[in-house]
């Protein structure tokens, strides 16, 4: 069996951007932003990712404080219900992050394939 066979999972590239010690943007926060955009809810986005509402809210707060403009706008619940949405800045940050993932995956495809070809096969050979 070769590493590129159908039973072998494809390699994936995940990036984490560290902005000094003040802020970080990585796959978890990007996925959270994407799910908030899809669901209109911080709690639903967190549930979809298997995280608590508190954890999701803390990550949103970290991102909102790290960037000049908030990435997520939220409103409290009540009779009309609460909700959350990506701000224009949030949509822009997510788009830049996803594009960077795409660029890096394309640029690194040959190196990733070379590394994957060096992996042991599941039978240990």
UniProtKB/TrEMBL annotation:
<dbReference type="InterPro" id="IPR000847">
    <property type="entry name" value="LysR_HTH_N"/>
</dbReference>
<dbReference type="GO" id="GO:0003700">
    <property type="term" value="F:DNA-binding transcription factor activity"/>
</dbReference>
<feature type="domain" description="HTH lysR-type">
    <location>
        <begin position="32"/>
        <end position="91"/>
    </location>
</feature>
<dbReference type="InterPro" id="IPR036388">
    <property type="entry name" value="WH-like_DNA-bd_sf"/>
</dbReference>
<protein>
    <submittedName>
        <fullName>LysR family transcriptional regulator</fullName>
    </submittedName>
</protein>
<dbReference type="InterPro" id="IPR051815">
    <property type="entry name" value="Molybdate_resp_trans_reg"/>
</dbReference>
<dbReference type="InterPro" id="IPR036390">
    <property type="entry name" value="WH_DNA-bd_sf"/>
</dbReference>
<dbReference type="Pfam" id="PF00126">
    <property type="entry name" value="HTH_1"/>
</dbReference>
């Amino acid at each position: 069996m070769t590493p590129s066979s159908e039973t072998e999972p494809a390699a994936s590239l995940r990036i984490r951007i560290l902005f000094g010690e003040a802020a970080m943007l990585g796959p978890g926060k990007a996925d959270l932003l994407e799910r908030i955009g899809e669901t209109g809810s911080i709690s639903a986005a967190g549930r979809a990712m298997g995280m608590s509402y508190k954890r999701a809210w803390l990550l949103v707060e970290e991102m909102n404080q790290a960037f000049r403009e908030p990435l997520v706008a939220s409103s409290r619940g009540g009779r009309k219900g609460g909700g959350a949405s990506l701000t224009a800045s949030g949509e822009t940050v997510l788009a830049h992050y996803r594009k960077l993932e795409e660029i890096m995956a394309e640029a690194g495809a040959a190196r990733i394939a070379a590394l994957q070809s060096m992996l042991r096969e599941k039978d240990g050979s």
